[in-house]
Amino acid sequence: MEAPVGAQMGPILIEGQRVGLCPLDRSLMPLIMWWANDPLTIELDGDEFSPMPLERLEALWAPLLSGERAGWAGFSIWLLAEKRPVGLLNLRDFLTPHRTAEFGITIGNPEDRGRGYGTEATRLALRWAFDMLGVHNVWLDTSSANPAAIRAYEKAGFREIGRVREARVMGGRRHDIVLMDCLASEFRWDAPDARLP
Ligand SMILES: CC(C)(COP(=O)(O)OP(=O)(O)OC[C@H]1O[C@@H](n2cnc3c(N)ncnc32)[C@H](O)[C@@H]1OP(=O)(O)O)[C@@H](O)C(=O)NCCC(=O)NCCS
Hints:
By secondary structure, this protein is an alpha+beta fold. It is built from 5 helices and 8 strands.
């Protein structure tokens, strides 16, 4: 996948060894459109694929970029050395009295997966959630047919807490929804943010 050029790197809000999290901005939209038009990526994200024109994507993202959606914090994931965006992540629904947040992440280009970026970015997101947002529990769901995601989440500090059995269809077959969470009190602050290159 040949990524469009032109995305501008904003200030680095939190950085690890190889990746940093930056604010989202509209210069990322052409790149996000490429990622959003990959059926496998969308299926792994747990969504139903349909072709996504740039205009529709911009309309969907407008309330997020403008800050209209309360309790939603989105970030772009950048390779620090190359100053290149490789993905997106978000923490959401954290403005409740219970101080929990749901987490989601995508490393957009399949060629950038399996290199440790997702694990490191996930750890940065957990640090942000616990340190900056004062969240106590970060949780997520994924598919049992997505072992790379489960492995990355475990390495970052999540653990499986249960399953909704045979509740997700992927590739024409039923799979479990895997629920995972990480508590602020269990997070290993001293663990490295990534395996060394
Ligand atoms: C899930 C995702 C964010 C993980 O990020 P990543 O950068 O690829 O993950 P990492 O490289 O940090 O870690 C992946 C781990 O899974 C392992 N893995 C990869 N494929 C695997 C497989 N089929 N079975 C078991 N483990 C696998 C890798 O070896 C690595 O573990 P290791 O470091 O112990 O060797 C990324 O792959 C992605 O965006 N995928 C597409 C969209 C998606 O699935 N989003 C999440 C929806 S919940």
